[in-house]
Specification:
- This protein has about 170 residues and is an alpha/beta fold.
- Helix content is about 55%, strand content about 20%.
- It has a 5-stranded mixed sheet.
- A hairpin with a 4-residue loop joins strand 1 and strand 2.
């Protein structure tokens, strides 16, 4: 399974491509999609959408995992993140790629063992889990790789739950 992890943002969208292969996690790519601060929102969204479509095709991704929107105190930032998520979801939908969303706490727990890990610990654990020579240069890329790892680690459980739900639905008929 090859997953494109996304840490969405209008100015900087982190991405990371991780594959589960023979019981190991392998990083294929990671970085940041940056959009010009002075550009119109719609043009920034086009840039994010275009690059995500390129990444899906280039890496033949099976799924996309996104970090869920965290509101915090800044509503303006939340809207911008939501718009970036929409551009990513559109790119996935156009190519019939399944998407999943994880809260920051779920991602941190999957990578570090607890949901309150600081960013530096997440970056170090991502480097360790993916056998990288060092932590990713960008927090956004580290977070995106962590989201992909979270999805891969949760995929077997999600399939089991979906199978059980389908079985219960079939039994009720």
């Amino acid at each position: 399974m090859r997953v494109l992890g996304i840490d969405p943002g209008l100015a900087s969208t982190g991405y990371g491509v991780v594959e589960a292969r023979a019981g190991r996690l392998v990083a294929h790519d990671g970085g940041v999609i940056e959009t010009p601060p002075g550009a119109a929102t719609e043009l920034r969204l086009v840039s994010i959408h275009r690059r995500v479509r390129e990444l899906i095709g280039e890496h033949r991704c099976h799924a996309i995992a996104l970090e869920q929107l965290y509101f915090g105190q800044n509503v303006r930032t939340a809207f911008a993140v939501g718009q970036a998520r929409g551009a990513v979801l559109l790119a996935a939908g156009q190519q019939s790629i399944a998407c999943a969303s994880y809260t920051p706490q779920q991602v941190k727990a999957a990578v570090c063992g607890h949901g309150r890990a600081p960013k530096e610990q997440v970056a170090r654990m991502v480097a360790t889990l993916l056998a990288l020579p060092g932590a990713p240069a960008s927090d956004h890329a580290a977070d995106a790789l962590a989201v992909a790892v979270c999805h891969i680690n949760n995929a077997p459980l999600a399939r089991a739950v979906a199978g059980a739900e389908a079985h219960r639905a079939e039994v009720r008929r």
